[in-house]
Amino acid sequence: MLQFDEVGEIKKGPWKAEEDEVLINHVKKYGPRDWSSIRSKGLLRRTGKSCRLRWVNKLRPDLKTGVKFSAEEERTVIDLQAQFGNKWARIATYLPGRTDNDVKNFWSSRQKRLARILQTSSASSSTNSHKSTVQVKAPAFLDLSSVEAPKFSSSTDEDSAAKSQACSSLDDNDTIKMVPFQDLVYPSTLTHEQNTLQLDYDTSQKKLFPEQESHLSFPQIPQLQSDFSLALESQDFVNRLGDPNFLDEFEPPCFVPDRSCQIEGRADSNDTVDLDTLISDFPPIDLFDDIEPLPSPSEWP
DNA sequence: AAGAGGGTCAACCGCTACTAC
DNA sequence: CGTAGTAGCGGTTGACCCTCT
């Protein structure tokens, strides 16, 4: 329903096609400026602010309207948000066709989703003191015998160092390399039987990562998953998931389930988390905290 | 089929920065 | 330098749509 300012007859609410047309004509004539003159000339009963917003967010000719954020764009936003914070307008300058409003809405949705998932996860594990178990059902073609259990059950400095670099990622040649990643919690044991990987977590291991105590409940798999998420964005990588020898490229404790795998978290509950959901929901907000800052905008291609 | 819940999007509001006088 | 007007930005809200139960 349209609203009117009692004093100035300011029109609010959704824009009509006729109003858009007037606005577009004004911009064609004078350029994207003098927004308040639109009202003073009696062309529209909208404030200058409202006109500017409408142009910037909806009428600009170069906008990607109705197109979802690509994986590349999502990565860019996550990356730049880690670097710049909530500077949506600045971030939007790196994304052709996207407005600050688009970026803001994307981020806000993502935050809500993450919050909801983490809330659910912590609720599901809150009744369990020190143990949680995650099972990964791998597709038949994966040879789980090639997966070795990590040896992270003690808390020596050596292991701690190993943990800090125990996250795999892809280099330019799509091969796996180890990179520092401190946000992971590793299973105390990893066993496999037929087509199921079982990861047991001893959540009492607070000594190693006291600052990560909040992560020592269920969502360990999402944290591992963040790495898969990065990896799976390489199409070639995805294609090779069907290769029976694929896992041979991985070093323990890394394993890469197929997208169709189901991951079950059993922290005193029977939660089932769909892998695709996890992939789309991660990497976590702080995933990029430990990587080097991006080059300055002038250095961008 | 209907209601609830969640996600997305457009638009507004309040504040700050900038600019002209 | 101070002030008023304007532009721009980030946060928030509400409507609408879709999915699930």
Describe this structure in words.
37% of the residues lie in helices and 13% in strands. Strand 8 and strand 9 form a beta hairpin. The chain folds into three domains: 3-59, Arc Repressor Mutant, subunit A; 67-125, Homeodomain-like (Arc Repressor Mutant, subunit A), CATH 1.10.10; 128-290, no CATH class. Mean pLDDT is 56; it is low at 1-8 and 126-301. The two termini are 46 Å apart. The chain is built from ten helices and nine strands. The radius of gyration is 25 Å and the shape is elongated. With 301 residues, the protein is of the alpha+beta class. Helix 8 packs across helix 10 (275-281). Strands 6-7-3-8-9 form a five-stranded antiparallel beta sheet. The protein has a two-stranded antiparallel ribbon with strand order 1-2. A two-stranded antiparallel ribbon has the order 4-5. The chain binds a DNA duplex (21 and 21 nucleotides) through residues 12-15, 33-36, 48-50, 52-54, 56-58, 86-89, 100-102, 104-106, 108-109, 112-113, 116.
- Helix/strand/pairing category: alpha+beta
Task: Spell the H/E element sequence.
Answer: EEHHHHHHEHEEEEHHEEH
Contiguous helical run count = 10
Rg is 25 Å
What is the helix fraction of residues, given as a range?
25-40%
Distance from N terminus to C terminus (CA atoms, Å) equals 46 Å
